[in-house]
Each structure stands twice: as C-alpha cells, then as structure tokens.
C-alpha cells in the first residue's frame, strides 16, 4: 500500500519537473531553494512522487546493540531453559560472559519473541437479565449508611434498609441503629407484612454477601445460617445471593440508594 501524498511531496515533484526542463540553476532561483537541495532530491527521484517522501532517520544499528554472539547465546540458553525465570536466566548468562543489564536482556528477549505467549482470558459474558413476571417473585434488599451530617444527634448512627419489588418497583424502607443480622431479620419480617397488606406474597429476596445477610465468607461461622436466613426459611422465602463484587446485580436497589443520596440526603436531617 503506497504512502499518502503530502503537500511537500507534491511541491518537490513540481520542483523536479521544472529542474528537469529548465535546469537546476533556474529552478533554484524560481523556487528559492539551494542547488544542493535540488541535487539531493534529484538523486532520489525516480519519476514517481512516492520517491520524494521523507525517509526515516532512525539509524540502522546502534553502537551498543547486542552482538550476533550475544543473541545466539541468549537464544540457546532460552531454548535449553524454557521455563526459567528472567532473573535466573540472566544469572546463568552472566556465568557465561554476558555483561548486559537485566533491562537490556528483557528488551532483546521481547524483540526476539522469547517470552511465552500470554494466556488468553475467557471473556466474561453476563447472563441476560431475568425479567420478573408477577409481583413478589423477587425483592432486592440492601443497606446503606446514613451520612452523619444528616443526623441531628452526633452520637447516633443510622442505617437505611431498602427493599424493592422487581416487578412493581414498590419500595419499602426501614431505619436501624445497627447493621447486623438482627436488624436484617427484623426488616425482613416488616417488609413481608408490608407487601402482604398490598396483596403481594414475597417469594424471594436477593441480597449481597454482607455479614448482615449471610455467613458465606465468614472464617468462623461459614455454613451456619444467620438470623436473617433463618427468618427467611420460617417465612417461606427463598434467599438469593448475588455474585461477589458485582453490585450491579442488585441494580434497582443500588440506584434507589443513589437517587436518595442525590435528592434527599444533602438537605435532610433525621432525628431518632
């Protein structure tokens, strides 16, 4: 594929044609260019405009570049020790007279392609969102800390529990002074009754993996049900945990908390 034609290339081609027709001296006066400049490009010009492009000024070799003997030593050593680490390989090369620094060895090995190809990671493909088909099929539950600037009592801490039915988007809130499995269990009982008064039977609650909901990642209590989980079983509610470190799976309640923070929290003061 030919290089793109620049204005300089077109200018030089016009200069070359003029010099070819009327001579170098006349072209030098007309184009206000030195005779040496015209002879330089005339020596390169083969009749095509591509020959008048500026060539790279990068040197073909460096005075301190690796010698052929050094490159052969590196390749042979790498072939005999394919799984050897970078520092260990450099140390073995030093024992055989190699005097370069590890940084130089790394650059030349990368240039020669002596590093094993990186393993291709499997692309994560999220599952398509499961649309709910009736009220109460799944309720998202989460908790957030109420900022201290919104509480009149400086010694009081409040935690906002939020539940959102995925089908109807009906939202139920609760405030507690502690973030624990006891508060979570109490909130679960209240949300169950609140939705029931509106004709909605809660079948499933979805939460993150916090200790206020589950002992899934607890070192000492892993496998033991929390009070929240026991309460869900007693109410006939399925408890579903989202994938760790993916709060977007609880996106509706997360967005609800964000909207509360942007709309109400900066201008609202809560009292106990």
Question: What key phrases describe this protein's structure?
Answer:
272 residues; alpha/beta; Nucleotidyltransferase, domain 5; five-stranded mixed beta sheet; 9 helices; elongated
What would you say about this model in short?
The chain has 272 residues and is of the alpha/beta class.
Provide a descriptive summary of the structure in words.
- One of its GO terms (biological process) is DNA integration.
- This protein is α/β, with parallel strands linked by helices and 272 residues long.
- The chain folds into three domains: 46 residues; 45 residues; 129 residues, Ribonuclease H-like superfamily/Ribonuclease H (Nucleotidyltransferase, domain 5), CATH 3.30.420.10.
- It is built from nine helices and five strands; from the N terminus they run H-H-H-H-H-H-E-E-E-H-E-H-E-H.
- A five-stranded mixed sheet has the order 3-2-1-4-5, with helices on both faces.
- Strand 4, helix 8 and strand 5 form a beta-alpha-beta unit.
- Helix 1 crosses helix 2.
- The longest helix has 16 residues.
- It is elongated, with a radius of gyration of 37 Å.
């Amino acid at each position: 594929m030919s290089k793109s034609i620049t204005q300089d290339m077109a200018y030089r081609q016009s200069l070359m044609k003029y010099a070819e027709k009327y001579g170098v001296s006349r072209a030098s006066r007309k184009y206000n260019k030195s005779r040496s400049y015209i002879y330089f490009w005339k020596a390169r010009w083969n009749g095509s405009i591509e020959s008048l492009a500026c060539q790279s000024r990068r040197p073909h070799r460096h005075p301190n570049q690796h010698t052929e003997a050094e490159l052969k030593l590196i390749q042979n050593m790498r072939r005999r020790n394919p799984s050897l680490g970078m520092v260990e390989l450099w140390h073995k090369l030093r024992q055989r007279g190699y005097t370069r620094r590890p940084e130089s060895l790394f650059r030349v090995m990368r240039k020669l392609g002596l590093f094993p190809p990186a393993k291709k990671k499997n692309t994560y493909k999220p599952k398509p969102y499961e649309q709910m088909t009736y009220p109460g099929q799944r309720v998202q539950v989460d908790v957030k800390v109420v900022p201290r600037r919104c509480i009149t009592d400086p010694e009081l801490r409040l935690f906002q529990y939020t539940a959102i039915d995925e089908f109807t988007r009906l939202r139920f809130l609760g405030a507690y002074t502690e973030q624990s499995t006891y508060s979570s269990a109490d909130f679960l009982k209240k949300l169950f009754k609140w939705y029931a008064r509106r004709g909605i039977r809660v079948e499933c609650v979805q939460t993150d993996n916090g200790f206020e909901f589950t002992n899934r990642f607890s070192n000492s209590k892993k496998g033991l049900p929390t009070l929240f989980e026991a309460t869900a079983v007693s109410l006939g509610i399925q408890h579903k945990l989202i994938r760790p470190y993916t709060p977007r799976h609880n996106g509706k309640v997360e967005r609800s908390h964000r909207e509360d923070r942007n709309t109400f929290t900066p201008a609202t003061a809560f009292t106990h």
